[in-house]
Each structure stands twice: as C-alpha cells, then as structure tokens.
Amino acid sequence: MQVVLATHNPHKVAEFGQIVALTRPDLEVIGYDGPEPVEDGVTFAENALIKARAAAAHTGLPAMADDSGICVDVLGGSPGVFSAYWAGQKKDAAANLELLLDQLRDIADPHRSAHFTSTIALFAPDGVEHVVEGIWPGRLAHAPAGENGFGYDPIFIPDGQQAGAERTAAELSGEEKQSQSHRARAFEALVPLLKTL
Ligand code: ITT
Fold this sequence. Notes:
One of its GO terms (biological process) is nucleotide metabolic process. Its cofactor is Mg(2+). This protein is of the alpha/beta class. The chain is built from five helices and six strands, in the order βαβαβαβββαα. Strands 2-1-3-4-5-6 form a six-stranded mixed beta sheet. The longest helix has 16 residues, at 44-59.
C-alpha cells in the first residue's frame, strides 16, 4: 500500500523511513513536494490534519502528516505547537534551543520535566480521518550534547535511562531513538488504522 508522508522536514522523512521499516516494511511511504499549506491550527491535531488533507488533495493518495513539538511543564506546555518557530519567523533550530535554555535559566525548576509530542493525522481518500498521538517523556538538560537527530534533541534527556549514564536524544543512535520516540509511539498507534484503508 502507498501512503504519502506530508512533510517538508527531511529529518522526519528519515525517521519515518526507519520507523516504518521496523514495524511495517510492506508499506510504501512516498515523499511529498507539493504546496506547503499554512499551518494556522492551535493544536498539534489541527496542524497535522491541515498537512495531511493538503497532501491527499494534491496526490489523490492516502496521506499522513506529523505535527510535533516539545512541551515544557514549567512553561505551561510551551513551546508546543510553536516549537519550529520558537525564536522567530525563520525555522532556526539552534536559536530555538538556545532561547529555551535561556528561558529556563532564571526559573527555579529542579525537575525540568518536558515531553515531546507527535500527532499523526491519516487522511484516507474516502474522506475518513484518523488522529493518533505519541508522547516521549523526559527532562531538559542544562547544555546541548550530541550530534544525532534534529531540533531539540541535544537538550532532551528521555526518561527510563540508567542513572549516571543518561544521554540526550541527540546522543542516541537512530535505531535507539526510533524504537522509543514520540513519533515511533504515534506510528505504533496508527498501524492498526492503516489496515482500514
Ligand atoms: P513539517 O511541518 O513540514 O512536517 P516542521 O519541522 O515544520 O516540518 P512541525 O511544524 O511539526 O514540523 O514542527 C516540529 C518542530 O518540533 C521541529 O521543527 C522541532 O523543532 C521540534 N521537534 C519535533 N520532533 C522532534 C524530534 O524528534 N526531535 C527534536 N525536535 C523535534
């Protein structure tokens, strides 16, 4: 079965490739280079649906889209849906990450708890829409570490690691991240729904 992946983010394309290969190697995921819709939703679900609908309309194929971001507890869930543009109009991952660390510098929060959210929308050609979500809990580091992944990975320490040997998401291998990330968890929830196409 063919499904269009409605994203212009090459990191998401690579991650989905690895996740799908692990769980649904029979699925043919096709890239999308059509027009990028305006993401003016106020929730991850709204934005994921906007992207999936646009790609389905453009290609006539089933389409899935991921809208994702990092949510910091002490900031009331921000940056959230604004993660890609946290430091301004330009998508600048380094500036976003620095701004977030700056904002936490003067806040007394020993836990620094945060989570990544991935919301995936699936738009089937018959108009049926599904939305699933995956969460990756963790906390924020005080300084970036690691070269892998993208976005906020260098400052995100996933939960569940051995004390004293904790790594940021950017210090995990691709296989390690793709076996536990928010995106992998959302995709896991999507797999049974793909059978309905
Ligand atoms: P598309 O809309 O084309 O899919 P995008 O990068 O603009 O690409 P989003 O609007 O969903 O996607 O923004 C997601 C942002 O959240 C992304 O730019 C990162 O800053 C952050 N983010 C999401 N998932 C992440 C991950 O796995 N690791 C690190 N940062 C992540």
